[in-house]
Amino acid sequence: MDEVEVVVAHAERATLRVGDVFLKVDADRARSDAEVEAMSLAPVPTPEVLWRRPPVLALAALPGTVLGRLGGPTTGSPAAWAAAGAAIRKLHDAPLPPRTGRAGRSTAALTAELDGACASLVTDGVLPADLVTRNRRAAGAALRPWTPVFTHGDLQIAHVFVDGDEVTGIIDWSEAGRGDALYDLATFTLGHEEHLDDVLAGYGTDVDLDLDVIRGWWSLRSLLAVGWLIEHGFDPFAPGCEVDVLRARM
């Protein structure tokens, strides 16, 4: 009999693996609806939906292995990172989905959320004020007008599967929708900026690729994530993770 593996679990949702089946449990049906819809529209490989009985969504396992993890080593070759860049570009070039995703939050809302997070990090003594101030300044580059594209919204490297130099699938689409293309590129290279050139080689340079904006998203995403991760039992201070990303900007 297959064992039940807890892939990830926190107060908002949980993912379990039983053999070649992943069971995603999410109390927020809207998030699950968004995931199923996005996978049906995305022009890149996604997991097969086996069945759905809210709050549970059953997905088939993808072939291959994850490209890497934040804070851990990466397994892919430069060609695999370039292939991932090409897959991201294919997604961004697709027709716009009906929903606005996580990468599509308004600049005003994002600025308010960021300033609140920065104040809490300093007031609660989580991070030094100079570290927060420097990264808040860098994050400002991401707070600018942008043209919406079809974004994944949570494109961590652990969500991209490869087999050799081929992308075999992308998982976790609950935050997908209209959004900023550079948010996806920054999320994908967060903590692994040494692979940014490979990703951009596959993505293509015939579009507006402002590296300061990508770096700004590294700072912005990390500043927002630290408090949430601590609250939900994760460690943003682990080597190579969000706090190290912030320190690298110093």
Q: What's the number of domains?
A: 1
Q: How many β-strands, per DSSP?
A: 10
Secondary-structure class = alpha+beta
Give the termini separation: 51 Å
Pfam family, one: APH
Protein name: Aminoglycoside phosphotransferase family protein
Domain Aminoglycoside phosphotransferase: 36-210
Organism: Streptomyces cavourensis
Summarize the SSE layout with pairings.
Layout (H helix, E strand, L loop, with lengths): L3 E6 L3 E6 L2 E6 L2 H13 L7 E5 L2 E5 L4 E2 L11 H15 L14 H17 L5 H11 L9 E3 L8 E4 L2 E5 L6 E3 L1 H9 L6 H8 L7 H21 L10 H7 L2
Antiparallel strand pairs: 1-2, 2-3, 3-5, 4-5, 6-8, 7-10, 8-9
Question: What does this protein look like?
Answer:
The mean pLDDT is 95. The protein has helices at residues 29-41, 78-92, 107-123, 129-139, 181-189, 196-203, 211-231, 242-248, and strands spanning 4-9, 13-18, 21-26, 49-53, 56-60, 65-66, 149-151, 160-163, 166-170, 177-179. Helix 2 (78-92) crosses helix 6, helix 3 crosses helix 7 (211-231) and helix 5 packs across helix 7. The longest helix is centred in the last third of the chain and has 21 residues, at 211-231. It has 250 residues and is of the alpha+beta class. The protein has a single domain (63-248), classed as Alpha-Beta Complex (Aminoglycoside 3'-phosphotransferase, Chain: A, domain 2), CATH 3.90.1200. Helix content is 40%, strand content 18%. The protein is globular. The N and C termini lie far apart (51 Å). It is built from 8 helices and 10 strands. The strands form 3 sheets. It has a 5-stranded antiparallel β-sheet with strand order 1-2-3-5-4. Strands 6-8-9 form a 3-stranded antiparallel β-sheet, covered by helices on one side. A two-stranded antiparallel ribbon has the order 7-10.
